[in-house]
Amino acid sequence: MKVTYTGRHLDLAPAQANNLQMEFEKVGKLLDNGRGEAQARVVLSHERHLNHAEITVPYHNHELVGQASDVDLFTAIHSAVVKLESQALKVKQKWRDSKRGPKIEAEPAA
């Protein structure tokens, strides 16, 4: 999974970026389908006493978005990843369980 980070009013240290990459490992396995095509855009911002995390992932013609806010930056990111994971599971289940079958031609009227 390719992850792009954007920080507004804050910067990430390399160690923090590695920790965030570990957060996305599970979601990446869920979304990649073994091809390594999934991309995530992460926007981190800081306002007064709150840290905001917004994660956007395009998946099966849907935009999956996880947003969370918390005093601790990594708690906010973890909450956003959990929300994103639940959305991905829901879309994947709909994709898998939808009724697909052969097209039935209507018989001509006599």
List keywords for this structure.
110 residues; alpha+beta; Double Stranded RNA Binding Domain
Q: What's the structural blueprint in terms of helices and strands?
A:
Layout: E1 2-8, H1 14-32, E2 39-47, E3 50-59, E4 62-70, H2 73-97
Parallel strand pairs: 1-2
Antiparallel strand pairs: 2-3, 3-4
Helix pairs in contact: 1-2
Report on the architecture of this protein.
This protein is of the alpha+beta class and 110 residues long. It has a single domain (2-97), classed as Ribosome hibernation promotion factor-like (Double Stranded RNA Binding Domain). Helix content is 40%, strand content 32%. It has a four-stranded mixed beta sheet. It is elongated.
